[in-house]
Structure formats: structure tokens, C-alpha cells
Amino acid sequence: MRKIAVMNQKGGVGKTTTSVNLAAGLALQGKRVCILDLDPQAHASLHLGIEVVGETPTVYHAFAGEKTLAQVRRLVAPQLWLAPSNIDLAAAEMELADTPGRELILRGAIDEFLATESYDYLIMDCPPSLGVLTINALSAAEEVMIPLQPHFLALHGLSKLLETTALVTRRLNRKLRVSGIVLCMHESNTRLAADVAADLNEFLSASDAEAPWSQARIFSTKVRRNIKLAEAPSYGKSIFEYAPKSPGAADYLGVVVEVLSMEQAAQQPLQLAQAG
Ligand SMILES: Nc1ncnc2c1ncn2[C@@H]1O[C@H](COP(=O)(O)OP(=O)(O)OP(=O)(O)O)[C@@H](O)[C@H]1O
Ligand SMILES: [Mg+2]
Question: 16 by DSSP, 3-state: which?
Fold first, then answer.
């Protein structure tokens, strides 16, 4: 079971596109996947064709302690569940301001959820901020995946994000690791994209072995800019349903395969240890 928070406090870098298509792709590979929409903008929910109206339970109710995640999540495709959100979740930020232990509410809800249900992947789509919702995701996750748009300020934002991750690792969640950085909306023919990738490599290889990102990989799959990826949400479909032959589908399949290969890599030492 892997719990992955897809986060970057910068807006519009590909968090939701990556969360939804990674989740959908893993489900198509036969994994049981649940995606938690932690953004009051509810883009992941809309991308999967779910617009919450009326009294439908959402992630907000889970934060408010009114519903369990088991009551909130719903099946949206074979093997793929979604705990949807809507704009009500914006209120949670304020309502939780004075609640002790507010950073750990989601972790508690997930622990309760997983006591009765099993998934291979829990994928959390974070909002573009380092507020209480994102901190909840980092406190509940074991892995952080960072979508990054190759941009000359991208690395600047990344250091803030990594500092936050380190802080959460120290104070709230020792298990948290940055597992990977995915370059999104990549334009392979630009010098800038190559420079950002090179700077990133240099930064990661120079980092302290104790840092939670010391084992992070830069995904070798770069997600190219592809109009089909931008169109798919308005049809409420993942890229695999909307345009399975597009470059966008090929790239996210590449991301899915790399995520699955990390699973095997993580299991190998265990197998060796057992064999020995
Ligand atoms: N590879 C891509 N090619 C073309 N368009 C893309 C690609 N990835 C994402 N987009 C589009 O760019 C916009 C921003 O992407 P997305 O919503 O995934 O970013 P985000 O980081 O989740 O944004 P926010 O910070 O608002 O939550 C969306 O309209 C999305 O459809
Ligand atoms: Mg988003």
C-alpha cells in the first residue's frame, strides 16, 4: 500500500492532471486506487466526472468528523475510487484554525478507513498552497510526488516546498519521503527545460543523505505539453479514456510504469533478505 501526496504550492503546474491520470493508469493496471481530492477547487473530482451537489458527502465532512472516508468515497471507474471535494473544503482551513492536532485529522481518518478497506494506492491531490490541507496530506502520506513545470523560478519554489517537507518529516511524520519529481508541460526542444532538469539533478545529487528528498528520482518520463490533457477534464475523463492514443496518454503511461517499478524496487531488498 502506497500513500502518495501530489503537491506543489505553485498553481497550475500539473498536480491534478498527474494525480488523476496516475490514479486512472494504476487502476487500469489492476491496482485498487483511491484518490482523495484535497483541493476546494475540486478539479480532480470534476476531471473524473463528479460534480458534488446537495448533501453528497465530501472530504469536507471527513475533516469535520461528520462522515468517515468510507462514507465519502465512491467508485468512479473499475478499481478506481474518489473521495470528492467541493468549495466547502475552503471553510475547513478556517474552521480548523483553533483545533488542536489539526494537522493530523486526515491521517486519523485514513487509518480508520484502511482498517476496513484495502487499496494498493491512495493518491492525494493537494491544493496550491502550504496550508492546513496540504500539511494534512503530508502528515498522512509516505511519499511526496512533485509535479514541476520547467520554468526559471521552478527551483526557487521547490526549495520552499522541500523545506516544508523536511519540517513535516521532523515534527509530524517520520515516514515521509520525496519519491519523485515529474516534469510536466515539458517542451523538449527548449534550452530552459534541459537547464532545469540539469539543475535539479545537480541539486538532488548534492543533497544531504538525511534529507527526505535524498532518494528522490527525477522521472525519466517527461510529460509533454499536449492539448488532449487539457481537454480531457471537460469531458470528465482520464486521458486513457478520452484520448488513449495521444502523446499525453503515452506519457502518463510512462509515469505509471515508473511508479510501478519503484514498487518492485522497494520489494527487492526484502526478497533478497528473505532468500538470504
Ligand atoms: N501536459 C500538459 N499539456 C497541456 N496542458 C496541461 C498539461 N498538464 C496540465 N495541463 C493543463 O494545465 C492546467 C493546469 O494543470 P493542473 O490543473 O493539473 O495543475 P494544478 O497544479 O493541479 O493546478 P492548481 O494549482 O490550480 O491545482 C489545466 O488546465 C490542465 O488541463
Ligand atoms: Mg489542481
Answer: helix
Domains annotated for the chain, with CATH where assigned, are: 2-275 (3.40.50.300)
CA of 12 to the centre of ligand 2 (A): 7
CA distance 246 to 249: 5
Q: How far is the CA of 11 from the centre of ligand 2 (A)?
A: 7
Looking at every residue in the chain, the average pLDDT score rounds to: 92
pLDDT at 13 over 50: yes
Q: How far apart are CA 17 and CA 42, in angstroms?
A: 12
Record the cell numbers describing residue 37, joined without a space.
481530492
Listed residue (140, 184, 218) closest to 10, CA to CA = 184
Binned at pLDDT 50, 70 and 90, residue 222 comes out as very high
Rounded Cα gap, residues 34 and 246, in angstroms = 25
Q: Which pLDDT does position 267 carry in this prediction? A: 63
Ligand 1 atom nearest residue 125's Cα: 22
Q: How far is the CA of 271 from the centre of ligand 1 (A)?
A: 39
